[in-house]
Specification:
The structure holds two protein chains of two kinds. Chain A is mainly α. Chain A has one domain. Chain A contains ten helices and no strands. In chain A, helix 7 (124-151) packs antiparallel against helix 9. Chain A starts with a helix and ends with a helix. Chain B is of the alpha/beta class. Chain B has a single domain (2-209), classed as Rossmann fold (3-Layer(aba) Sandwich), CATH 3.40.50. Helices cover 27% and strands 25% of the residues of chain B. Chain B contains five helices and nine strands; from the N terminus they run E-E-E-H-E-E-H-H-H-E-H-E-E-E. Chain B has helices spanning 41-48, 89-99, 106-114, 129-142, 159-174, and strands at residues 2-12, 15-26, 30-34, 56-62, 74-77, 147-151, 178-182, 193-196, 207-208. In chain B, the strands form two sheets. Chain B has a six-stranded mixed β-sheet, with helices on both faces. Chain B has a three-stranded antiparallel β-sheet with strand order 2-1-4, covered by helices on one side. In chain B, helix 2 (89-99) runs parallel beside helix 4 (129-142). The longest helix of chain B has 16 residues, at 159-174. Chain B starts with a strand and ends in an 8-residue tail after the last strand. Classes of the chains: A mainly alpha, B alpha/beta. The interface between A and B is medium-sized, with 28 and 29 residues.
Chain lengths: 221, 216
């Protein structure tokens, strides 16, 4: 096993075991979406209109939930020091950890999205669009969040700071994700916002690991 | 392979922790770093491991793999044991051997050597502080790296554990390894140099420990 696959496997294992937080994200997502009809009322037309936006917001919050542990747990138990003495570049280590985080928290959420979308009267064609935008857009959330997680790594209760740092940066992803998911309702063609969403994700995949590695190296001192 | 340090200076939070620290360490040699609390023993090891930036002086490696930094050829054993409670004892060690690119089949041997072979499948959450330290030490045995940076390696070990640790260090030195250890007590290694961070700056160079002047 190469160093990076070993890290990926370890992080996935920890995520699905007791206290790992992989399933907490999905449960949180489901609960937030389920609460919406209670708050908005039984107006199906309204729910259908705001449905994709609600699902995207819930996905954004759920992906933030476990993100503060991305580097903090490794920092607290000394694993991060040892990772730095490894021969794998820190940028790739962060990419592997980000991928493990995305696989264990975002993928279950994407699987749950079409089912929970039924509660908001989202119809099959719109569901497909929604799943596709979540699939493409959530890696951007993870990798933008990784930068925040790296900055907040040495702080107790860093999760609060993390949310304040990360949420404003996710605005473009939210705008284009929801715009693409809303395609059935809106006049904009699907391709335009979806391509921008893809671009945002690709950019964050490239910039995120480098920015997070720079922040981590400063934090370790 | 030789680690050279000349006039190292360490600054933490704007305060100078130590200055003028020099030593040379060649294959088969050990250096015991001593000093009062806060003298900078851990900081010195963290500087050598590359976690803290050097505020002054020079640190370089002669010989060894020129493509790799000192940290990439070193094992760092700090106060924290880097043990994940939700993974089993063997899974913890297997991860580090794979991450450091060593053979997986050494895992069980290393666990036997530190006396954890019988509980390899136990979740690490149930380990005591001393057992966690033994698990960390097993990492040094499973993955071969020439430089060992040990920060109070014996602090939580029992007498038997200390004895084993001394044996491991001794055989590492015989195999051509280098050991830098921060310690309060005696290392138990014959011929180890001692570097005291308490002495005035001009006298802070490593010297061979003679039985007469060794710390009681």
């Amino acid at each position: 096993m190469t160093p990076l696959t070993a890290l990926l496997v370890r992080d996935m294992r920890i995520a699905v075991r007791v206290g790992g937080g992989a399933l907490i994200g999905v449960l949180f997502f489901v609960v937030v979406v389920t609460l919406t009809p209670f708050a908005v009322g039984p107006d199906l037309a309204l729910l259908k209109r705001i449905g994709p936006a609600i699902l995207w917001l819930a996905a954004l919050l759920a992906s933030l939930l476990a993100l503060d542990r991305l580097f903090a747990s490794d920092h607290e138990d000394g694993s991060l020091d040892l990772i730095l003495t490894g021969r794998a570049p820190l940028e790739l280590v962060i990419a592997a950890k980000g991928l493990a985080h995305w696989l264990s928290t975002a993928v279950p959420l994407i699987v749950a999205a079409p089912l929970i979308g039924l509660l908001l009267d989202i119809e099959p064609p719109a569901q497909a669009g929604l799943v596709l935008t979540l699939l493409v857009g959530t890696p951007a959330l993870t990798f933008i969040g990784a930068v925040g997680a790296a900055i907040a790594v040495t702080l107790r209760r860093g999760g609060l700071l993390l949310a304040v740092i990360v949420l404003p940066l996710t605005v473009p992803v939210l705008i284009f994700g929801v715009a693409a998911a809303n395609v059935a309702a809106g006049p904009v063609p699907f391709g335009t916002p979806f391509t921008v969403l893809c671009a945002l994700t690709l950019a964050s995949l490239v910039i995120g690991p480098f920015a997070a590695a720079a922040a981590l190296r400063l934090d370790i001192e | 392979m030789r680690v050279n340090a000349v006039n190292l200076t360490c600054r933490r939070g704007g305060r100078e922790v130590f200055a003028g620290v020099s030593f040379q360490l060649a294959r088969g040699e050990a250096l015991a770093v001593t000093g009062r609390n806060g003298a900078g023993k851990s900081s010195l090891l963290r500087i050598i491991a590359g976690f803290i930036r050097l505020a002054g002086g020079r640190l370089w490696l002669e010989g060894g793999d020129p493509e790799l930094s000192i940290a990439e050829q070193a094992h760092y054993l700090g106060h924290l044991d880097a043990v994940k409670p939700s993974l089993s004892v063997a899974e913890n060690l297997s991860f580090w051997t794979a991450f450091f690119g060593a053979d997986a089949h050494k895992v069980q041997d290393a666990l036997e050597m530190v006396g954890l072979g019988a509980i390899a499948a136990l979740p690490a959450a149930y380990l005591s502080a001393g057992q966690r330290r033994r698990l960390s030490i097993a990492r040094l045995l499973a993955v071969k790296r020439p430089i060992w940076l040990l920060d109070e390696p014996a602090s939580t070990l029992d007498a038997a554990g200390r004895g084993r640790l001394t044996d491991f260090m001794q055989s590492h030195l015989v195999g051509g390894g280098l050991i830098l250890a921060a310690t309060h007590g005696a290392l138990g290694l014959s011929g180890a140099q001692e570097l005291s961070l308490d002495r005035p700056a001009h006298a802070r160079t490593a010297e061979t420990q003679h039985p007469a002047e060794a710390a009681p």
